[in-house]
């Protein structure tokens, strides 16, 4: 133990953050966290003041995804704490390491319906990996040590620490624990050798294998091992939305994203495979479609650090619980080089017959064209997205070649996520260009964070695909509800150029295809945050598309 003189609980929290190498916090102050903010004032930890607590969680999330480090956010009690909930749930669904601090009324007042009191540990119990209500200031150092350990190990996730105001002011003797001992929490990292051997035997026998890579590959840093495995067994690779970038999408064996808006050839390959090698993916409904028709002839090898995911949605033949990187290293050792096969030729034919494509135009801006131009000009940028059509077009047409470069809300599908996530990603990776691909609906949910970007000199770029609709909902209404556009027309959108200018930064309006490239370059060359308002084709749809409840090879468009 490292012993220090007595200090307040708030001082102890800051000291623990130093020990955890925390450099930045995203937050919004209030009465119940004033002692903590008073200590932050003199600390070396950078605090980013957001304009809404939800965005503190999203920014910390974006920071964590871009850097691989644990993100930290703070909010006060009551509405401050509840405003974090969406961001915490978003991080939980996508396995993002996050520690959220919330203020709480003094311990003597808990349960009395005091001003700005809510049971935030109760509220967040289903959407945190673990949470704490601190009732004894002496437990603070161990609580923080445990929280950061839990958030960042095994399958990562958010941990919440609720800090009553009197706990922050109470004096304690500071002892910083060097180790954490949690008997009930022992993640498995190394896969079982016999299961790895069984997997290798199945891979060598398979005639039509396919690798299905998810966000777990990103988290474990297993992208190099994934590429080695792929090129050893010459199996095509499909990825989830969270898995984009784990395998270069410019590689001949890449089939890109599969599922509801995946490429036809990716879905056909998954359906006709005889062996699925699932790595760090959870077989969610957007991937599987109709479960009973999913890959009917395939055995499944499932590599995942979370045993709860094994056979949760799809029956698994060979489960291997553990860290993807460690398991792939061992698997590669026992495999032999495979040759090109008729399977590879079949997939090449599908890629040629069913390419991702859209109707091009020299009169109106197609949203897919905007994404293609950003990718062509700045393919090494970090891309964040909002949710809806903009997200799916970005996933389809931005070819990711590295992990932690495509950041999007997957499991929760949170509109408004992309802009604050872009701010967090840029804070974590200041030397990287960061683009938020946005919809006009999503951007308006968190556009107030322009103030955050400007006041903290965070020059993120926002590309709004402005179609005047809640585009994905409108698309479903067009296809399945006879074009009855109920509450999906955004007929009172602001002038986004003037909005940007009102915050003191650059806005660019683009109304014709010939201006797209130069507008992107103009935005990137600016040292300020920039909003580009692309007036895109209003009723353009995202295709291919698998209707809800259909098999993934039952594709329209």
Molecular structure report:
With 557 residues, the protein is an alpha/beta fold. It has three domains: 2-176, Thiamin diphosphate (ThDP)-binding fold, Pyr/PP domains (Rossmann fold), CATH 3.40.50; 193-353, TPP-binding domain (Rossmann fold, 3-Layer(aba) Sandwich); 367-535, Rossmann fold (3-Layer(aba) Sandwich), CATH 3.40.50. Helix content is 37%, strand content 18%. The strands form four sheets. Strands 3-2-4-5-7-6 form a six-stranded parallel sheet, with helices on both faces. Strands 11-10-9-12-13-14 form a six-stranded parallel sheet, sandwiched between helices. Strands 16-15-17-18-20-19 form a six-stranded parallel sheet, with helices on both faces. The termini are far apart.
The largest sheet is: 6 strands, parallel
Sequence of strands across the biggest β-sheet: 3-2-4-5-7-6
Shape: globular
Second CATH tier, the architecture of the largest domain: 3-Layer(aba) Sandwich
Q: What is the CATH topology descriptor of the largest domain?
A: Rossmann fold
Task: Give the oligomeric state.
Answer: single chain
Strand content: 15-25%
What is the count of DSSP helices, taking H or I runs of 4+ residues? 23
Distance between the termini: 63 Å
By CATH reckoning, the class of the largest domain would read: Alpha Beta
Mean pLDDT across residues: 97
Proportion in helices:
25-40%
Low-confidence stretches are: none
Which class best fits the helix and strand makeup?
alpha/beta
- The CATH superfamily of the largest domain is known as Thiamin diphosphate (ThDP)-binding fold, Pyr/PP domains
Number of strands: 20
Radius of gyration equals: 24 Å
Number of domains: 3
């Amino acid at each position: 133990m490292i012993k220090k003189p007595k200090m307040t609980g708030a001082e102890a929290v800051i000291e623990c953050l130093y020990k955890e190498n925390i450099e930045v916090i995203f937050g919004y102050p209030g009465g119940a966290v004033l002692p903590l903010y008073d200590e932050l004032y003199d600390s070396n930890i950078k605090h980013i003041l957001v304009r809404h607590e939800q965005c503190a969680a999203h920014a910390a999330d974006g920071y964590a995804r871009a850097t691989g480090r644990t993100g930290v956010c703070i909010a006060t009690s009551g509405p401050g704490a509840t405003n974090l909930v969406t961001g915490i749930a978003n991080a939980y669904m996508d396995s993002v390491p996050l520690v959220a601090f919330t203020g709480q009324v003094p311990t003597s007042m808990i349960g009395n319906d005091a001003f700005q009191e809510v049971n935030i540990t109760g509220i967040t119990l289903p959407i945190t990996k673990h949470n704490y209500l601190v009732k004894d200031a002496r437990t603070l150092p161990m609580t923080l040590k445990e929280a950061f350990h839990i958030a960042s190990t095994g399958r990562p996730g958010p941990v919440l620490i609720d800090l009553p105001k009197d706990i922050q002011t109470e004096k304690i003797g500071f002892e910083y624990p060097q180790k954490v001992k949690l008997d009930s929490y022992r993640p498995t990292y190394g896969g079982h050798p016999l299961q790895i051997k069984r997997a290798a035997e199945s891979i060598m026998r398979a005639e039509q294998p396919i690798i299905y890579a998810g966000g777990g590959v990103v988290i474990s840093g297993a992208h190099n091992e994934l590429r080695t495995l792929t090129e050893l067994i010459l199996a095509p690779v499909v990825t989830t939305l969270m898995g984009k970038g784990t395998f270069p999408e410019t590689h001949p064996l890449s089939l890109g994203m599969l599922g509801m808006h995946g490429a036809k050839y990716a879905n056909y390959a998954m359906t006709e495979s005889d062996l699925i090698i699932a790595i760090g993916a959870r077989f969610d409904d957007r991937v599987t479609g109709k479960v009973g028709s999913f890959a009917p002839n395939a055995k499944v090898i499932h590599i995942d650090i979370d045993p709860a995911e094994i056979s949760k949605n799809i029956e698994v033949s060979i489960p291997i619980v553990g860290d993807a990187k460690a398991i792939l290293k061992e698997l590669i050792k026992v495999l032999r080089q495979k040759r090109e096969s008729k399977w590879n030729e079949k997939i090449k034919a599908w890629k040629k017959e069913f390419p991702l494509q859209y109707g091009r135009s020299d009169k109106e801006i197609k949203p897919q064209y905007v994404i293609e131009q950003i990718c062509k000009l700045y393919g090494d940028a970090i891309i964040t997205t909002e949710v809806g059509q903009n997200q799916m077009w970005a996933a389809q047409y931005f070819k990711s070649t590295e992990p932690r470069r495509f950041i999007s809300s997957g499991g929760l599908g949170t509109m408004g996520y992309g802009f604050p996530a872009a701010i967090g990603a840029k804070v974590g990776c200041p030397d990287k260009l960061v683009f938020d691909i946005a919809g006009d609906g999503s951007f308006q949910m968190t556009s107030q964070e322009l103030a955050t970007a400007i006041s903290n000199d965070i020059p993120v770029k926002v590309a709004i695909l402005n179609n005047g609709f809640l585009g994905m909902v409108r698309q479903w209404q067009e296809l399945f509800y006879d074009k009855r556009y109920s509450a999906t027309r955004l007929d009172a959108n602001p002038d986004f150029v003037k909005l940007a200018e009102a915050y003191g930064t650059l806005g660019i309006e683009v109304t014709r295809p010939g201006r797209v490239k130069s507008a992107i370059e103009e935005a990137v060359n600016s040292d300020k945050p920039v909003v580009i308002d692309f007036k895109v084709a209003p009723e353009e749809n995202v295709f291919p598309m698998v209707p809800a409840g259909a098999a993934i090879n039952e594709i329209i468009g």
